[in-house]
Structures are given as structure tokens and as C-alpha cells.
Amino acid sequence: MKILHVIPSINAGGAERQCVELLKELAVINEINLVLVIFENKIEYSEILDLNIKIIVIDRKNYNGIELVRKLREIIKREKPDIMHTWLSFATITGILAGLFIKIKTVNGMIRYGKKINRFSLYGIISKLTLILSHRVVSNSKAGLISHHLKENNKNRVIYNGIDLTRFNENKNKQDLRSELGLVSTDFIIGMVANITSAKDYSTFVLAAREISKKQLSIYFVSIGKGDPETLNKYVELSDISNLRFLGFRDDVTDCIKSFDVGVLLSNTHGHAEGLSNSIMEYMIEGKPVIATSDGGNPELIKNGYNGYLIAPFAIDEFIEKIIFLYNNRDIGNQFGNLSKKLICNNFSNTRMSQQYIDIYKDLI
């Protein structure tokens, strides 16, 4: 069985991480031959280079849309895959167009978010066409299917993200990040792993840090994600917020999470909602209580008051209240974390995810 995976890049991101995790599982199966096409000559998840996978780069900076479709079409004809598995909207639209009138089965992995789609918008119309032309559609959350007005059935599937438990080394020193930041074990870290984009609600994160700093509690806020940490930290200094640090992109995220006391993911629901968040899953496997925006696929991971808290969008007062409660009730936070870790270990393994994809591939062939 030969499978062609098409994704815009292997830069740091949720869909990219899941693509890598799936390829890691598939690469060790003798009956499966893999080819990966990316549209940007940059790889931030370097473990992909250790796999026995043919990687083809079509740098999108050098081609217009029609040329990209033609280039991909040439690759499909040359490689003759049985299945083309596309990730995210850009790669899916390009892949569907390139595969028109070619005998190839398609797995559409463009649904990664839980925000409702206006079916009459240009994006809604284009996405609908790609969904119709695909042989299978996979969302990483039930909320994702609902957002695209789809019902779960044989064609439209939910496959939850898998997580590679070997990435989480219990022997790492939990104090490494704290020492780097000049913090001690008694300080309480609120951590958010998310790229600094309009899809995330960093305004609530920053405002909460400012309000809590006035209370003179040893609660510190740490952001990890691509952005411009120097400019952001300068803004923080000018705003006199002493308990907030933007660390930018790091390749030791799993180790940093060990130093958190609470994992946070706040979404800008005006234009975005999470699918199934890798960041939340990583907090959970490290046994951290989670505070997240109640939207998209987050309720599929977090049960409010059971293994974390779901708060209303942009609810600064509620966010602060939950932080201070967990600060004063560490035993409850530990209980939340233990329940979350058990949930991830039992239901969200890489092996489970990959087997569900393999079942789809075999079903198509």
C-alpha cells in the first residue's frame, strides 16, 4: 500500500505534529510505503528526518496556485500512490485539484477546528466541494464535523489525536525552566503553549497576569509559542507586568510543561475554535490541571470541575477566579491532573490513532 501525504509544512503546529506522529507509526509497517509532499522547505519537527520516508518539497514561494497543482499532479502520476492523505485546507484544495481525473483515493484531513463554517461563504463553498470530492473525511474532534455541517458516518470519521508517550521523559528535572526564569519551587506557574496569533486569546492571558500581579501572590504566567518574544516582553515591561514572560518558540516544550502548575489554552472565539488541542493533551499527560475556553473540541477532553475547568470566552474574572482557586487548593489540582493523565493514557495513544487510519486506508483499497 503506497500513501502520499500532503501538508503545507512540517513547522511547529497541531496538525503538523499529528502528521508526524502518524508517519512515525506507519513508517515501521513493512506493507506501507510512504511519500510526503510539503510546500515549504523548512522542517521544525526534525524527527521526521529519521524516518525512512521520501520527502518531496514544492516550495510555494516559487509557484502560483495553478503551477503548484500541476507540480503535485506530476508527483501523483510519477509516484502512483494508492491513497492521497491531505492535511489542512491549503494542501487539501491543492491535492483535490491535482488528483482530479486520476485514479487515486483521497483522505481529507482539512477539518482541524471547531468553529462553525458559513456554508455560503467562499471558504464554505470551496471546502464543501473538497468534502464532496473526497473518499473519506477525517476530523480530529466531533465539534469539527459539526462545524462543517457533517454527520459522523462511514465517510465522515472522527479520529482523535494520538500522543507519543515516549516523548514525555519522567526523569527530566522539573526545576529546569523555573531556574532559567529565576523562580523557586514555591512559585506557581500558569503556562500557555500556543503560537501568538489572532486565533488565541492572549489579551485575556495578559490582563489576568496584570490583575494577579496586583494581589502580590507568587503566581507567574509563561507563554511558549512562535511570535516575537523580545517585542512582547518589552510591552510587558512598559506595562509594568512583572509576573509575565513570553519565551517564544522552544524545542523542549514537553520539558517546560513539567514546570507548570496549571496548563492554559485560551481561544479567540470571534474567529476560531479548537479542534482537539495537542497542547491540552500534553498538559494532561504531564498530570497538570487545565483551564481552557469552553468551545470547539475542548469539552471532548475537559469535563468541567472533574479534570479541569472550562471557562466562557474572554471571561477574565472567571479565569482569575479559577487560577486563584487552584493556587489555594493544590490537592484538587493534583486530582484533576491524575484523572487527566489516566484519560490520555487509556484513550489517546499513538497506536490507537494510527490503527484507525490504517483501517480507513485498507477500507478504501
**Count the helices. How many?**
13
Unreliable parts: none
- The string of secondary-structure elements, in order, is EHEEHEHEHEHEHEHEHEHEHEEHHH
Radius of gyration: 21 Å
How many structural domains can be distinguished in the coordinates? 2
Task: Give the averaged pLDDT, no decimals.
Answer: 93
- Oligomer state of the chains in this structure: single chain
Structural class: alpha/beta
* Total count of strands: 13
- What is the 3D form? elongated
- Note the gap between the termini: 8 Å
Proper CATH architecture of the largest domain = 3-Layer(aba) Sandwich
Can you tell me the CATH class of the largest domain?
Alpha Beta
Strand content: 15-25%
CATH topology of the largest domain: Rossmann fold
Question: What percent of residues adopt helix (DSSP H or I)?
Answer: 25-40%
Strands side by side in the biggest sheet: 3-2-1-4-5-6-7
Q: Describe the largest sheet.
A: 7 strands, parallel
CATH superfamily of the largest domain: Glycogen Phosphorylase B
